[in-house]
Amino acid sequence: MDTALFKTAFSANAIFIPATRADIAPCQATTVATAFTAALVKIGYTADEKLFHALCHLSNEEIAEINLEIENILGLRLNWMPMIRNWQTPVETDFYDTLIAMFANVLPALNDIPGTTLPCGHFIPDGTFPLERYNGCPLCGRTFAVSDYTYTGQGTKLKTLTLWTETELLEYECTLLNSKTPLEGTQTEALKVLLNHFGLPEGIDIKVREIAALAFLYLAGKEDYRRAADIVKSPADILRALWSEKSGSARIVKPKDIATREADNVGYRWQPDYEERKEQKRIETIEKLKLKYSRAMCRFVARLFEQMPMDACAMCENMHPDRGMWVRFIRALRLAEYGRRNDFPKLREVLDRFYRGDYTVWAGEVETALLSKDTARALRLLSERPGAFARRLFASMLHLGATPVLEAFAVAGEQTDIRLLLTVDMYAAYCLDPDNERSVRLAGGSTHLIPPSKYLKETPKEEIAAMTAGVKDVCAALISRHFASRGKIGGTVYIQKELYDIPVPVGERAQSNSGAYYLPQGSRIPVEGDHIRLFLHWGEGLPAQHLDMDLSAIISYPDHTDDCAYYNLSPAGAVHSGDIQYIPDRVGAAEYIELDIPALEKNGATHVAFIASAYTSGGVSPTAKIGWMDSRNPMKVDNETGVAFDPSTVQFSTRLDTETPYDSIVFGVLDIKSRQVIWAELLIKGQMARSISITQIMAHVSKLENRMSIGRLLEIRAKAQGQTITGLAEEADEVFTTDTATFARIATLV
Predict the structure, then answer these.
(1) Strand pairing partners for 27?
(2) β-pairing verdict for 531-540 and 587-596
(3) Helix (H, G, I), strand (E, B) or coil at 201
(4) Among 68, 307, 327, 701, which is 20 to 30 Å from 447 by CA?
(5) How far is CA 599 from CA 241, 394, 436, 672, in A?
(6) What sign does the CA torsion over 212, 215, 221, 225 have?
(7) Three-class DSSP category at 504
(8) d(C-alpha 167, C-alpha 157), whole Å
(9) pLDDT by residue (tens digit) across 578-603?
(10) CA separation (Å) from 329 to 223, 241, 333, 733, 745?
């Protein structure tokens, strides 16, 4: 079985069976197929009719292989044992117990006091830590045993698995390639796998530059330079593709920013050699980012410049925002050498103009017009590039006034993608709030707070309210006209009600891989029971070593915050399973936090932020898996081992296989009043919960909450294209549900 294809299909809630073995003809149910589907129910899944028929035609060995793949994906064979047994009952230790134990290990005069020496060599005095409750050392965080036991069958919801063959996988690849929004981590990993197995289909018109970069690198790796040349439309496309191969990021992040980010994440900052390690890491990163290309690649890029349909001035303007990086690439690709040859006259002109600065920059002209209040010239320039107009709409309104700008945008917006119109509509109230600090995610992945514009503070609130309403009215009309221009569809459409809690994916670019749990950022997931159990698992496949990661939660009250973390195991309404700092060999380690929602509500808490942090290495482990569990049924904790993981209760899970180093990730925020969890990937500085700003977290959540839901967008589409909404999926001509393939389809509609 092809493991990569199986994982890709499973991420879309499907099981991949090769077409040669996928027989869906009805037949008598086999014992093994029946037992397998019963086992699926215990881990939170069920099989539809088509998949069950296909399973009945498989051999026992093939079903066993499928079962093993699912167990590996869900991590059922890993070590899920935490530090403390029966950790839901607090161990009632404090800082002074740790202090006494530490002194007992460093002061020879205390060697004679009664206590226990653990396998790690640490001495624990009697009366400090209840060692009968621990699976390891409470001082150094080393566990002495592992357990691959997990619970099953406590969940109350089932995900339906269907059958996929090569046909469905190829359709999924085409859907991803046709996306009109940048792909998130889950989708990017799926597309890479599908490109490697099926290649790039003919006739695909790729709209998103980051997706084009993936396709370009695939074709260039296959030395299919003819098709690769058809994909790039500008010098920026070439730069993005080549730089993503070097940096691992589909977005253009400058080398010095990457080096600074890597250097900031080198582990323990309180150690005396931190600055030395930081400088060494910076030097290593710069060395790693040095460019070197073969003659064949240099010649290929030179030909791309020569054959590009843009004129020389337009190409120079396109290169201008990344001028410093282009200087490096021109040197590494030997473009100056090729420019001196007689068969590269256009390349020679481009390089000559670029180095002399003999070209105009549209963005500079727009900025000049805005600052000089030249309304006619500014609007004429903005209307030339509707996409850029949408991105500058709010600033233009503040400089030139709302009425003329919105009138011009109502015309130019006819040529603007729906995705940009949705973004403008979503963020109108958020960006035009004079009291709101905006959360902005930079190209490198980090998030920063931006203070409101001084122009907003000088504008009367009544005028701001009118501006916001005007933006929304114009965007709603343009979106409706865009859908109507595509022609009438007619028939019926089914919109699953959960889609009204899931925002339209407009390019938040989550880097983590959520697999079968994929949801767009900002999705609100209802809580079933009275308890939520967070989990963090890291170290899978790695040798035994000191690799300290921490699971924590910030509990927000109207006037203060409280932390549930390794230094505060049992605050009001929450309990932590204990700190693990050393991972065992290959099978990883786990930490849990359980939140008691009624208790938090009673104490007046408003929100709880879920956080995973890297403490040792300065970067989150590439094998880390985070998420939360929830069930209407009580969730058990094993008394002997403390294991509390049950895949059937997992509401959301994601794997942090990203090359972007960062201290911490905020992966969810519980809104206690509404009893919903907002999924958010917020990369943030700070290795402990106490050093992370709840203000920054809530600003990011506020931005996500302003986004339009998929359900609302589909309603607008149905009205514009003559569809009737029905409540029965079985009777609908078109069905939209909360599966990964549907989210990919949504991205092609905008």
Answers:
(1) none
(2) antiparallel
(3) coil
(4) 327
(5) 51, 43, 31, 11
(6) negative
(7) coil
(8) 29
(9) 999 999 999 999 999 999 999 999 99
(10) 20, 12, 6, 51, 36
Domain with CATH 2.60.60.30 in the chain: 515-705
Whether 527 contacts 677, CB under 8 Å: yes
SS (H, E, C) 697-737: HHHHHHHHHCCCEHHHHHHHHHHHCCCEEECCHHHCCEEEC
Burial (0-12, 13-18, 19+ Cβ within 10 Å), 111: exposed
Q: Which two tokens stand for residue 629?
A: 């569990």
DSSP state of 548: -
Provide the CATH topology of domain 515-705: Lipoxygenase-1 (2.60.60)
Question: What would the two tokens of residue 527 be?
Answer: 């809580």
Q: Is 375 exposed, middle or buried (0-12, 13-18, 19+ CB in 10 A)?
A: middle
Q: Has residue 223 got a pLDDT over 60?
A: yes
Please report the pLDDT score of residue 275 as a whole number: 86
Taking only the tens place, the pLDDT of each residue in 414-445 is 999 999 999 999 889 999 988 888 888 777 66
pTM above 0.90, yes or no: yes
CA–CA distance from 695 to each of 77, 609, 699 (Å)? 39, 11, 6
Report d(CA 472, CA 427) in Å as an integer: 10
DSSP letters for 459-496: S-HHHHHHHHHHHHHHHHHHHHHHHHHT----SEEEE-
Nearest C-alpha neighbor of 635 from the set 627, 643, 624: 643
Long-range Cβ contacts of 99-107 (<8 Å, 24+ apart): 100/125, 100/128, 101/125, 101/128, 101/129, 101/138, 101/139, 102/139, 105/139
Residues 579 and 566 sit within 8 Å (Cβ to Cβ): yes
Estimate to the nearest angstrom the gap between the alpha carbon of 121 and the chain centroid: 41
